[in-house]
Amino acid sequence: MKLLCDREQLLAAFGAVGGVVPARSPKPILQNLKLDASPNQGSTLMATDLEVGIRLKVLGVKVDQPGSVILPLQKMGQILRASTGDDELALEVEGETLVVRGHRSEFKLPAEDPSLFPDPPDFHAETGYRISPADLRRAIRRTSFATDPDSTRYALAGVLMEPGPESITMVGTDGRRMARQIIPCEPEGNAEPPNQAPVVPVKALRLIERNLDDDEPARIAVQDGTAVLVRTGRAVIYSRLVEGRFPNYKAVMPSSYECRIPFTEVDPLLSAVEQAAIVTSKESRGVDFQFGDGLLKLASQTADIGESHVELPITYDGKDVAITFDATYLIEALKTLDPSQPIAAELIDHKSAAVFKTEDQYTYVVMPLNRDR
Question: Does residue 311 register a pLDDT over 50?
Answer without folding.
Answer: yes
